[in-house]
UniProtKB/TrEMBL annotation:
Family membership noted in the UniProt record: Belongs to the CBP3 family.
Protein's organism: Limoniibacter endophyticus
Domain Ubiquinol-cytochrome c chaperone: 33-171
InterPro entries: Ubiq_cyt_c_chap (IPR021150), Ubiqinol_cyt_c_chaperone_CPB3 (IPR007129), Ubq_cyt-c_CBP3-rel (IPR014569)
Name listed for the protein in its UniProt record: Ubiquinol-cytochrome c chaperone
Amino acid sequence: MFGQRRASNEKIVEALYEAIVAAARQEPFYAQAQVPDIPLGRYEMLSLHMLLFLRRMKRETDPAAQELTQAVVEEFFKDIDHSLRELGIGDSSVPKRMKKLARMFYGRGESYGAALEDNDIEGMTRALKRNIRPDDEKWPQAPALTQYAFAAVRNLDEQSAAQIVRGRLVFPDAAGAMQVVAD
């Protein structure tokens, strides 16, 4: 019985994490919003979607939901570790890089979380610019990504905890949620 429950939970964690990854990899982020389609840009989008998921799950007090949320976070960091190794980062350098990426992730959690909670559109746009496109001070597509983030918050808030703990997590379509500003 215990082994079956663990296998079921692993499938749910996998389904939730796959939904987060699929949302982060939506082509409009990279084509229309001009998020750099490089490992760091993909990390930023994955982090944004993980943080949106965590924001949604923060209000759940059920221990099973909290356990599941923690397992998804662990899957995220395991995936990041694996990706670093695939990029050829040596075993001795991975822990240091992981610490840096974890600090980046939790720092983004604070800035994005505060902006989302306060419905601070300008603050969210500034945070996204600072983190995703520090090379482009103007980045005219940042407001479109901000629109997406707020649409995702609304979308996730409408999903029941029962649905999520069964492994069903739906993010909005990026193309439909973003109105990209022309250059």
